[in-house]
Design brief:
The protein is of the alpha+beta class. The protein has four helices and 14 strands. The chain has two domains: 18-121 and 222-227, Diaminopimelate Epimerase, Chain A, domain 1 (Roll); 129-211, Diaminopimelate Epimerase, Chain A, domain 1, CATH 3.10.310.10. It comes from Streptomyces lichenis.
Amino acid sequence: MTTAPQPAAAPLPLPPHDVLAVFCGGDGRHGNPLGVVRDGRTCRGEEARRAVAARLGFSETVFVDDPERGIVDIHTPTVRLPFAGHPLVGAAWLLDLEVVNPPAGEVWARHDGEFTWIEARAEWAPPRTLRQYASAEEVEGLDVPPPGVGLYAWAWSDEAAGRVRARAFPGRGDGIEEDEATGAAALLLTARLGRALNITQGRGSQLLTAPGPDGLIELGGRVRPLSR
């Protein structure tokens, strides 16, 4: 006797979460979307968290496991990250934290009204190819490369002023072809160039960086809520 196929189980409801735009431009637009699950107890385990990140469809989603101590867990749709810039800036802004603790280590945060800043180390950033181009126009005209090693394409738009035009291609093959704003790559570029940068990435997101003492780099940007 042939057994009739069973209907697929409906996906579990998404846990309560906030959606933010991190590293917005000066006009408040753009920024990289971020999902923040404030109560990590509602979604336990790496597999479950990756599934939530995949359903939300953002480059990263952050799960807050202890809001008092700032303990957070960052996931892309396919991998867990020990560090990522825009999730930490976003979580620090949303929860008004002075310290955020991803797996990579302790990250201090501060808020100056318009910008939220974190202090981090470039060596915490995932590997990425930094490729300089001759002009901002050349960067803007790039096609999305095939999946592979992540590419951060950049060019000076005003070298004397430290202004950079950039685009970021994660290359993970998880459906995120281009990141609107990438804090980890900004740290790597700042460490390579050894100077403060004002980076315009994607459609118009803005990231600010400044080298500090003992290998620390400040990374800052604007954050705004998108939904809840």
